[in-house]
Amino acid sequence: MHQFAIHPMFGTEGWEIAGYNIAFTNSTLWMILAALGLLIFVFGGLKRELVPGRWQMAVEYMTGFIDSMLAANIGPAGKKYVPYIFSLFMFILFANVLGLLPIGIIGLHPFTFTSHFSATGVLAIMSFAIVLIVGFWKHKLHFFSLFVPHGTPLAMIPIIFPIELVSFLVRPFSLALRLFVAMMAGHVLLKVLSSFVISGINAGAGFAALVSIPSFILMIGISALEILVAAIQAYVFALLTSLYLNDAENLH
Amino acid sequence: MDPQAAKLIGAGLAAIGAGMAAIGVGNVFGSFLESALRNPGAADGQQGRLFIGFAAAELLGLLSFVVAMILIFVA
């Protein structure tokens, strides 16, 4: 589908390093836009007034939200992860919401880079790498006791260990897959409904009344749902990352 | 059976998984709401767990979607 296609922009097709194409793609452009939007959002709230204005309140609310989430899930040790989780949450949120912008009506094409497994995979690998680094740094080889929960009977260890190991190792995949599939499925759904609207209108007035109008009303509802999903998926990604960090910080 | 037909039937069967995940997600939020109305004071503290349950239930539905997509476009 055209909306998921990645193509080079600004004549950078031929840029190569060691045989790998490093063209500036539309995916890159929207990543930069998301990061830029996040920077503007945060710097707008950095005036540090004693009585915060609206913008500063918005930024403080978001940082406070992440802070309380980490405090609830990790405890006092979670304080140092606030910058990472905040950046992760806001970056994904901006990316998801920017991809839903209706700028198609002025001829531009929004692109949701979170609907690509390579983009979400890198975010998930970053989270997983931090979990591994913190876990092994803090607990050394004792980190492996994560795979044998407290009070496991000795006879159960050969069964529990592989289960826990596999459930630990699929975490980056499930983390990346959830975000990628949720975003892609939502966009595909909107695309299918909009094709109903268009082919209904093309098929004549009867089909337009019978198919196009209900589809269009459904599309408006699904669009509202997609905005909710964009926020929920960003939240779930941040929440699960903080849970995994809790495993690394406190073991079981 | 024609392999193409078998692929499409498999993709259709995978949609059952999406429906099951819908039941699961509905169950998560329904049970939460039910108990939140019984004890509203404790509800706010459990929102993290609500979304963990939601994420776990949703992932399995998304996996069935992935299976359907792989069957249609990749396999």
TrEMBL record, chain B:
GO molecular function, one term: lipid binding
TM ranges: 6-29, 50-74
Alphabetical list of Pfam families matching this protein: ATP-synt_C
Membrane topology, record value: Multi-pass membrane protein
Residues of the site described as Reversibly protonated during proton transport: 58
GO CC terms: plasma membrane; proton-transporting ATP synthase complex; proton-transporting two-sector ATPase complex, proton-transporting domain
InterPro entries according to UniProt: ATP_synth_F0_csu, ATP_synth_F0_csu_sf, ATPase_proteolipid_c-like_dom, F/V-ATP_Csub_sf
Primary location recorded for the protein, binned into one broad class: membrane
Top-rank taxon, per record: Bacteria
Keyword annotations of the record: ATP synthesis, Cell membrane, CF(0), Hydrogen ion transport, Ion transport, Lipid-binding, Membrane, Transmembrane, Transmembrane helix, Transport
Domain V-ATPase proteolipid subunit C-like: 9-71
Keyword Magnesium part of the UniProt annotation: no
Subcellular location per the Swiss-Prot or TrEMBL entry: Cell membrane; Membrane
PANTHER family named among the record's database cross-references: ATP SYNTHASE LIPID-BINDING PROTEIN, MITOCHONDRIAL, ATPASE PROTEIN 9
Function: Key component of the F(0) channel; it plays a direct role in translocation across the membrane. A homomeric c-ring of between 10-14 subunits forms the central stalk rotor element with the F(1) delta and epsilon subunits. F(1)F(0) ATP synthase produces ATP from ADP in the presence of a proton or sodium gradient. F-type ATPases consist of two structural domains, F(1) containing the extramembraneous catalytic core and F(0) containing the membrane proton channel, linked together by a central stalk and a peripheral stalk. During catalysis, ATP synthesis in the catalytic domain of F(1) is coupled via a rotary mechanism of the central stalk subunits to proton translocation.
Family under the similarity heading: Belongs to the ATPase C chain family.
Family matches, as HAMAP family: ATP_synth_c_bact
Name recorded for this polypeptide: ATP synthase subunit c
Protein species of origin: Novosphingobium endophyticum
Gene (name only): atpE
